[in-house]
Amino acid sequence: EASNVNAVDEMTSVLALSKQFELHIKMMNTAKEDDQAMTRVLAMS
Questions:
Q1: Which one of 18, 25, 33, 44 has the minimum C-beta count within 10 Å?
Q2: Which sign, positive or negative, has the C-alpha torsion 8, 14, 16, 18?
Q3: pLDDT above 70 (res 1)
Q4: Which domain holds residue 31?
Q5: What total of structural domains would you count in the chain?
Q6: Is residue 38 part of a domain?
Q7: Burial 12-42 (b: 16+ CB within 10 A, else e)
Q8: Which tens digit of pLDDT belongs to each residue from 9-33?
């Protein structure tokens, strides 16, 4: 009995989701760095 899952399509989906996850993590880290920089700037005022 054949599976209803296409392994190649599923692997492609997993890779795409992994890339999206990495990009979101980078975005959050950049936002954190921006927040820290702004906090330092405001502290000097």
A1: 44
A2: negative
A3: no
A4: 21-45
A5: 1
A6: yes
A7: eeeeeeeeeeeeeeeeeeeeeeeeeeeeeee
A8: 999 999 999 999 999 999 999 999 9
Q: Is the dihedral of CA 17, 21, 22, 27 positive or negative?
A: positive
Q: 43: pLDDT confidence band, cut at 50, 70 and 90?
A: very high
Give domain status of residue 3, yes or no: no
In a domain, 34, yes or no: yes
Backbone region of residue 2 per phi and psi (left: phi > 0; alpha: psi in -120 to 50; beta: other values): beta
The residue whose two tokens read 């890339």 is: 19
pLDDT band at 45 (very low <50, low <70, confident <90, very high): confident
Structure tokens at 4: 């209803």
